[in-house]
Structures are given as C-alpha cells and as structure tokens.
C-alpha cells in the first residue's frame, strides 16, 4: 500500500488560517478568493528531495495590469514577466549546497493566454474575470540533490524583479517546521528548518 503524505493535508489546514487584514481587497466571486493588490500568497512544501512552491498573486503585482493583454506592449510585458518567473533559481534562491534544480514550472491566469506565459499546453478551463481583477498562479517544483543542506529560501529576487509585491504571505510545511509568516522587501528569507 502506498504511503500517504501528510504535507498536502498540512498545507490545507494552514490555508484555513485567518486572512490577514488589508485595505485594497477585491472580492472575487466564483473560483478566486479576495485578492489584495501588492500582496501575494506562497505555499512552500518540502518533502524528501522535492521543494514545491505555489504562488498566488494578483496579476497587477507582476505585470502592472489585470486585463487581457491585447496590445503589443502588454503582450511584451507578460512575456518578460513569465521569462523572469521561469528563472526559478533567481526568483526563489535556495542554498547552493542543496543543489536544487528546477524540475517543472506552470504559470496560469484566466486573463492571459497560455502561450504568452510560455505554456505549451492549454490552461484548464477558467472563466475570464468579469470584474476587472485577475490573478496569476505559479507552480514551481525543484528537486534538490542534497535536501539536508536546504536551510533557507530567499525571495529577494522576486521582490526585486516585481516591485508590485509589497508583502507575501507564506505558508510553510517541511518535515521539521510548519507555520505561516509574512515577507516584505528587505525581509525576504524563509527559514526552512
């Protein structure tokens, strides 16, 4: 019988933590919960040698707008943001001794075509936002040759590349630590142990 992992259940329970107060919240009915401009959410899980990250952010934080990219300028902005997000070791820096390598990246937004985000396959069926507010979801999987050497995850690269982020709310689950924390520019290290 295959061994069941407790990490997904732990992340689910962490997701039920009370939402943080915010001034610029937009309530999304349907598939998207309220989002706050400037605030992103990041789920971090380490299991075995696999580090998985799920970023959920208002689209405005990474491209500066939340509408469909119809102009050449908007499309170029989206392509550049997607290329930057795919530089995983720059955006989510790990300890060099852990030797973590990007294994899989998936970017998705109901307001943007998968091709603009660098995706080859069609995105899952989502309705385009009708309220003018859209999110971007990013799933990043890294495989680490020496996961025991993984002590921190550094998001300074994410804050530098995307100044639209004012805060990132993190939920963390590793074999040694579970919890939630807030990151801001200049305070962007996640202790993993």
Automatic annotation (TrEMBL):
Name the UniProt key words of this record, in alphabetical order. Signal
Span of the signal peptide: 1-21
Q: What is this protein called?
A: DUF2796 domain-containing protein
